[in-house]
Amino acid sequence: IMFHSTLALSLLLIAVSSNLAMAIKKEKRAPQTLSRGWGDEITWVQTYEEGLYQAKKSNKPLMVIHHLEDCQYCQALKKAFAESEEIQEMAQNNFVMLNLMHETTDKNLSPDGQYVPRIMFIDPSLTVRADITGRYSNRLYTYEPQDIPFLIENMKKALRLIQTEL
């Protein structure tokens, strides 16, 4: 009987520890995969729907980055974005963050076309802010690496709008 209970306990411990190991591994890996290089310290939501829900719940704006892996402009922007301490800190603390490599069904997220990179803001009332644009009239929501200060201003603008409007 002693042997059976020891065996059962050992099996139980093995099961628990392997589940725990998997949970720990999952915990470590998730942000890495969802960040796709935009910032591993940032908590990223997985879907647009989840982003909208979190924005409403947390009363933070949702920042949506559309990009593609093989787009050199996206890669350059991603590098500048990830290297900007100010952006990383605001993204971690004040925004719900989503980066997508596919289009959503929400037409409001492509008011002037489905180009990449494209960064848009949605406020906690779930309004897509078509009034927060970049510097280029032909692609209103695109940013280039040298536009990082401008993107920082737009992030601050998105935060100010919440305080004044909602």
TrEMBL record:
Signal peptide interval: 1-23
Pfam families: Thioredoxin_7 (PF13899)
InterPro entries with a match to the protein in the record: AGR/TXD, Thioredoxin-like_sf
Keyword Signal: yes
GO terms for MF: dystroglycan binding
GO CC annotation terms, alphabetical: endoplasmic reticulum
Keywords noted in UniProt: Signal
Entry's family note: Belongs to the AGR family.
Official protein name in the record: AGR3 protein
